[in-house]
Write a structure and sequence with these properties.
Layout: E1 4-11, E2 15-18, E3 21-25, H1 32-42, H2 55-68, E4 82-88, H3 93-103, H4 113-116, H5 122-132, E5 138-142, H6 148-160, E6 166-175, E7 178-187, H7 202-212
Helix pairs in contact: 1-2, 2-5, 6-7
């Protein structure tokens, strides 16, 4: 079975691109917290829960908003057939450390519920699923780096077993001021493929990652 990349979106410290075209530029002087709020305003969103999220969830949330802009996929596919399969390297370590610092001293034991709720990377995917009412496969996997073969194998299996008809998959990494994301909207309907006719396979995933995040070189 052949899968197709319908659309892809990358967010890094210098810009946002959709299908390889830069749609938003950052002067790189903004710290992540200000940059992500700038993107929120750029998208003209009205979702107050966004401001309560941790940094990883904010990055994943905004990346999906950019990817799905004007798509209305919930009207085209059953909600239980739309999945979210993501990966990253740092998991929820940033929030884990904040939580640990709040409980390490038993004499000043002030754990924050707002931190604790985000001590799992799956919460990022959960926030997206709640926002868009997706009820399909939902997972976040941890790997040292972007591994296109892993994403390909897991997504292909989900489509082959008819678990999914559409999937948001990719890489969302965030730790302190080191962050990047690259998401793909993947389907098996050839009519949905992008104008470039990008086939969903490890080679193309790897090439798109290198192109979209070339700022790192």
């Amino acid at each position: 079975m052949e899968l197709f990349i319908y659309k892809y979106c990358a967010v890094n410290r210098s810009n946002v691109s959709i299908n390889g075209k830069v749609v938003f530029e950052n002067d790189e002087s903004l710290v992540f917290s200000k940059y992500i709020r700038t993107l929120y305003r750029y998208m003209k969103l009205d979702y107050t829960k966004f401001f309560k999220m941790d940094g990883l969830s904010k990055l994943g949330f905004m990346s999906v908003e950019l990817l799905l802009q004007e798509e209305n996929i919930i009207e085209k596919y059953p909600s239980e057939k739309i999945g979210i399969i993501l990966s990253n390297a740092s998991s929820s370590l940033e929030v884990d450390e904040k939580h640990q610092n709040s409980i390490i001293d038993r004499r000043q034991y002030f754990p924050s519920p707002s931190n604790f709720v985000y001590t799992l990377p799956n919460i990022m995917a959960g926030e997206v699923a709640i926002r868009h009412r997706f009820n399909g496969e939902n997972s976040v996997m941890i790997s040292e780096c972007f591994r296109p073969e892993m994403l390909y194998d897991i997504c292909t299996a989900a489509f082959s077993n008819d678990v999914l008809q559409l999937c948001i998959c990719g890489w969302v990494e965030k730790y302190a001021e080191d962050y990047e994301s690259l998401l793909f909207l993947v389907g098996k309907d050839e009519l949905l493929k992008s104008r470039e006719g990008i086939i969903f396979d490890p080679s193309n995933l790897s090439n798109l990652y290198k192109q979209a995040l070339a700022w790192k070189k």
